[in-house]
Amino acid sequence: MKKHHEPFGLHLMIDAYDCSPKSLNDTNLIYKILDELPDLLGMKKLMKPYIVYAEGNNKRDPGGWSGFVMIQESHVSIHTFIKRRFVTTDVYSCKHFDTQKAIDYFKKTFHTEDIEFYIEERGKKYPPENID
Q1: pLDDT tens digit sequence for 10-24
Q2: How far is residue 19's CA from residue 8's CA, in Å, rounded to a whole number?
Q3: What is the reported pTM?
Q4: In what order do the strands lie in the sheet with 50-55?
Q5: Architecture of 9-122 per CATH?
Q6: CB 91: neighbour CB atoms within 10 A?
Q7: What pLDDT sits at residue 131?
Q8: How far is CA 103 from CA 23, 81, 113, in A?
Q9: Which molecular function terms from Gene Ontology are attached (predicted)?
Q10: Which of 13, 66, 84, 94 lies 20 to 30 Å (CA to CA) from residue 1?
C-alpha cells in the first residue's frame, strides 16, 4: 500500500495588474514588503532583503525593481514593471502559510484588486522521514 505524503511546501505565485506606479517604484516599500512579509507569515529571514533596479531590455520589459529575501523555509521575490503597472511575486515555503493573508497583503500594498494567483503544492512525493 502506497503511503500518502504531505507536500514539501506551498508556492504562491501572484500577478497583479493596474498597480500604483508610485508603489511599484518605491524601493523603501519593496524593502519593507520583503522585510515584514516573512514575519507576518511566521517565517524566518536568513538575510536582509536584496533589491536591484533592472533596466528595461526591450518593449516587453520596460524595467523595474527586483527584490529577494531568502528565508529559512525558502524565499520571497518581487519583480515590478513600473510603466506597465504590473508586479509579479513568489512566496515559496516548506512551512505551511496563510496564502490568503499574503494575497491580501499584496493587494493592499500595491493598491490593486486586479490579481491572478496560483498556488502549487511542491514536493508532492517528499519522503516523510530520513531514508538511509
Answers
A1: 999 999 999 999 999
A2: 32
A3: 0.87
A4: 50-55, 63-71, 74-81, 86-93, 9-17, 114-122
A5: 4-Layer Sandwich (3.60)
A6: 27
A7: 63
A8: 16, 18, 10
A9: adenosylmethionine decarboxylase activity
A10: 94
